[in-house]
Write a structure and sequence with these properties.
Elements: E1 2-6, E2 13-17, E3 28-30, E4 37-38, E5 49-52, E6 69-72, E7 79-82, E8 85-88, E9 93-97, E10 103-106, E11 113-114, E12 125-129, E13 136-137, E14 150-152, E15 159-160
Parallel strand pairs: 2-4, 3-5, 5-6, 9-11, 10-12, 12-14, 13-15
Antiparallel strand pairs: 1-2, 7-8, 8-9
């Protein structure tokens, strides 16, 4: 289900994914290039992979979505992905962490911030290593990561959001 409209501030035509069909049995969803954002949490028991289209600028709460893999169209100028991680284009913000990769999460150097609840509920991560470039750990970033045993934080960290490590019972 899609919504089409005009952004009144830019005059640009926008199209948002409002709902992903719950009854579909596809394992991969390739987002059409006309979609500029998702305004829903994409959940479906069969869906494993989402491919972000060329014009998508925003994914609504990807940490709460049910897919395990994100791929990005090579023409997309808003996102990039690498090794189970989704970043803003230019890789300054970490947006999503795959729930299917276990063990150690090493956030690459150059990343400065994280999206809200970036790895919330990810019960497979046991260790997180943040780069010296990291300035902000977002609200709820690792909440509910019950297997998390250690976090290496940079000296220059400026802010740790509320509930960033809530319910991390092994820390």
């Amino acid at each position: 289900l899609y919504y089409y409209g005009t952004d009144i501030s830019t005059g640009k035509i926008v199209a948002s994914l409002l709902a992903y069909p719950g009854g579909k049995h596809d394992t991969e969803y390739v987002m059409p290039d006309f979609v500029t954002s998702t305004d829903c949490i994409i959940t479906n028991e069969y869906l494993e992979t989402i491919v972000i289209g060329e014009n998508c600028e925003n994914i609504y709460e990807p940490a709460k979505c049910s897919f395990d893999t994100i791929k990005v169209s090579p023409k997309n100028k808003f996102f990039e992905e690498s090794d189970g991680l989704l970043f803003s284009y230019g890789a300054e913000e970490l947006i999503w962490v795959s729930k299917s990769k276990s063990g150690k999460l090493v956030v690459p150097d150059g990343v400065k911030s994280m999206q809200l609840r970036v790895a919330e509920g990810n019960e497979l991560k046991t260790e997180v290593v943040l780069p010296e470039s990291m300035e902000i750990i977002s609200e709820g970033a690792f909440s509910g990561c019950r297997a998390l045993e250690s976090v290496v934080m940079p000296e220059g960290l400026k802010e740790i959001g509320k509930y960033a490590f809530y319910d991390c019972s092994q820390l």
